[in-house]
Amino acid sequence: MKGGARLMGLRWSIGLGVTALLLACTPRPAPTPIYLPFETAPAPTATATLQAIPIVIPTPDELMRSHDASAVYVEIVPRNLYDAAADTLEFEVTFTTHSVDLNYDFVGLATLRSEAGEEVAALQWDGPIGGHHVFGVLSFPALKTRGQTITLVLRDIADVAERTFEWPATR
Question: Measured over all CA atoms, what is the biggest interatomic distance in the chain, rounded to whole angstroms?
Fold first, then answer.
């Protein structure tokens, strides 16, 4: 029996060897590539460079306009003149005098106009009325057409028929 088991083991070994030899020598087709739905594209060879575009925001000093006549000094600084999404345009207004009482209806005396010909009346004055040193915010509806310049006009304050304050319509 001992010899039969040995012969059986030898047959198995030879059979396995022949099978391995046949598998190794049989030509096979190249494997088909599998494309996954989330396969990423190869990395780009060139790198993109970002260039900073400077945004010029004028300072309040650069935006400040003034008018001095008939003993009343007026300074105006726009708050949101270049905000395209604004529903109203707001202007900080300072009146200074030592001889005239500033008891005026500033809403009724102020208009805003564009070089394109649109003119709107003031909506609101948020500040005191009267005195010698008056500070407040004058609001206007946003202009639909701006042109090259925007002009705020104050009429009939301290015997001055018209005080004009002008800014570029765009930065």
Answer: 136
